[in-house]
Every structure is written in C-alpha cells, then in structure tokens.
Specification:
With about 90 residues, the chain is mainly α. It has helices at about 15-30, 40-60, 70-85; strands at about 10, 70. It has a two-stranded parallel ribbon. α1 packs across α2. The longest helix has 21 residues, at about 40-60.
Amino acid sequence: MCRNIRTLFNFDPPATNEEMRDAALQFVRKLSGSTKPSKRNEEAFNRAVTQVSAAVQELVASLETSQPPRNRALEAEKARQRSAARYS
C-alpha cells in the first residue's frame, strides 16, 4: 500500500478535512498510477478524489474506540525514531 497514507483515526487533535482529502488523493494516485492525470482523465480523477474523500470522512466520523486519543507529536517522534533506526 502507499506509504504516504497515514492513520487518521483517534488522534488529538482530530484529522482535518484537508488531511483526509490528501489521503484520498494519495490513494487515487496509487490506484491510477499517475500523480497528474491527462486532460482527458482529469475530470474522472478529480471525481474519484472527491468520492474517496467523502468516504474517508464518513468512515472516520463513524468509527468508535475505547482507547484514548493518540498524541500527534508523540506519534510523529516515534515515527522519526523508527526511521532513523531503519536508515542509519
């Protein structure tokens, strides 16, 4: 799967609509195999991003958990540490 798509659920502060749209864009890019569609496919590409973004927002809004929200800064630091260990 695409490495750039990040977990959006159960964070404090919650994921923004822009973050959800960015994840949808990455997903559609991965599926289509292109980062910028041709003029001929641009409408279909943009429509897919909009539909996937709406599905992401609906999913995140409807998920429930008994776990406390994760801290974004702490999770980012953990990811940096994993990356440093992996690539050093």
